[in-house]
Amino acid sequence: MHVVVVGCGRVGSEIAVTLEAQGHSVSIIDKRKDAFRRLSSNFTGDSIVGFGFDRDTLIEAGITDAGALASVTSGDNSNIMSARVARETFGVPQVVARIYDPRRAAIYERLGIPTVATVSWTTEQVVRRLIPTTLPTDWTDASGGVHLVERTLPGHWAGRRLSGIDESGRFQLSAITRLGTAQVARNDLVGQSGDILHLVVAADALDELEKRLATTTDH
Q: Which residues lie closer than 8 Å to 2 by C-beta, 6 or more apart?
């Protein structure tokens, strides 16, 4: 998949290198040419000087072929503008914006733009939102038998009861984060676009969970 990263600071450069190492093609945009010095010497993607909300710059970065965009500059407004242009003008399915002011997060998520607050930001969290087919674990118990994982709700689960995800003894939804606020899962909870799922999963059931989330019919 082709991914566009906006902002080549510590965060953006790490995302670009991580995604390329996973086999994705990557273009990275920054308004300063010297910012690209942060990139690893092994990085083979395109480095483009410009603004991430400029349509011509995005086109040069391959946005028309992109499956994902991450905007992680130092400015909230720039990040949201870049993410919205990618989503609304070019139809990029997976976008994420870095947000410094957590009070804005709920507003932007209502616009369908997943956000990651600076205080909780990690490269892994952003990559997880960009590449929903990956399923890293957030915690594993000492015996290695149980994982905690975080997953963005697939679009086809919106409007459906989230209890349909559970499989007794294999995996269970324990909580969700919706519009920046976490809540314990209930049996009557219905999914909404942008929900982040927090699940308990048996170590040998990660693939089963991924298949369950990918299904379009209740089990």
A: 24, 25, 26, 27, 62, 65, 66, 67
